[in-house]
Design brief:
Order of helices and strands: EHEHEHEHEHHEHHHE
Strand content: 5-15%
CATH class: Alpha Beta
Helix content: 40-55%
Largest sheet: 7 strands, parallel
């Protein structure tokens, strides 16, 4: 297990208040990392900190708006002062916007530019660009770091309806590989994780009917997933710990780990 030991590492997890980011933060804490729970909601952030510390880990909440470079800089300085210089960055912020989703009432040609831009801002600007610009150079200066971005199965295979989300997540995958090349000789590894379908608050209405039964879209997902089910957030955490570890994944950069229950391998 020493391969996955994260003792003396400081992990900034932006979006740790969400289901996937929270599960990854918990797992990295269990592996020994000190966790900076970074987000906008102090209430949800402190709740996540309590979960981690109650389980024996070390964590602290830091106010952070991933869409604001000034906020990110302030968060970075506060983390460095309280926990030490960050050596791991997990970018788990992102999302979609209903007005950028194709529906019978909203064909592609009518998608408004502000909604399209909002989705790209969420997933590419706040979900990668600004955090990497803030934390990446400091890691390069120290000669050590692991950055983990969150891609999507729709980075690889465009899904119906969510065109802006698909395009922005494809861009996340491309930018991850670009940064991996740029920072490889400076001791900083940049990789991504591709989650399959994990129920969360933001996609709950798409995946479940009002009575709690799986929606038509959920049943379609099950039929296209080799394992025939949704993933549990804890099933993503192992990939995060692996990519965070400078021992287990020391020669891994520019890679994408797919955790999708076989979604991308299923055809007919």
């Amino acid at each position: 297990m020493s391969l996955f030991n994260l003792n003396n590492e400081v992990a900034v997890v932006i979006g740790a208040t969400g289901a996937l980011g929270g599960a990854c933060a918990q797992a990295m804490a269990e592996a020994g990392a000190k966790i900076a729970v970074a987000g906008r909601s102090a209430e949800r952030g402190e709740a996540r900190v309590k979960e981690i510390t109650d389980a024996g880990g070390t964590a602290q909440f830091f106010t952070c708006d991933a869409m604001d470079s000034t906020s990110l800089n302030s968060c970075h300085e506060s983390v460095a002062e309280a926990l030490g210089g960050p050596t791991i960055l997990l970018n788990a912020a992102g999302g979609n916007h209903p007005d950028a989703t194709v529906t019978p009432d909203m064909p592609f040609e009518n998608i408004p530019l502000p909604a399209w831009a909002k989705v790209f801002d969420l997933n590419l600007v706040g979900g990668l660009l600004l955090p990497c610009q803030e934390f990446g150079p400091a890691m390069c200066a120290r000669g050590k770091g692991s950055i983990i971005n969150i891609a999507s199965v729709t980075s690889h295979l465009p899904l119906s309806k969510v065109i802006a989300y698909s395009a922005s997540k494809a861009a996340v995958l491309s930018a991850t590989r670009f940064l991996a090349r740029e920072w490889a000789t400076k001791g900083v590894r940049v990789n991504s994780i591709t989650p399959g379908f994990f129920p969360a608050e933001q996609n709950k209405k798409l995946l479940y009917n009002e009575d709690g039964t799986p929606s038509e879209r959920a049943l379609s997902i099950f039929g296209h997933t080799a394992m025939g089910r949704f993933g549990d957030p804890t099933e993503l955490a192992g990939a995060a710990v692996y990519l965070a570890s400078n021992k287990a994944s020391s020669f891994v950069t520019g890679s994408d780990i797919v955790v999708d229950g076989g979604f991308l391998s299923q055809t007919i």
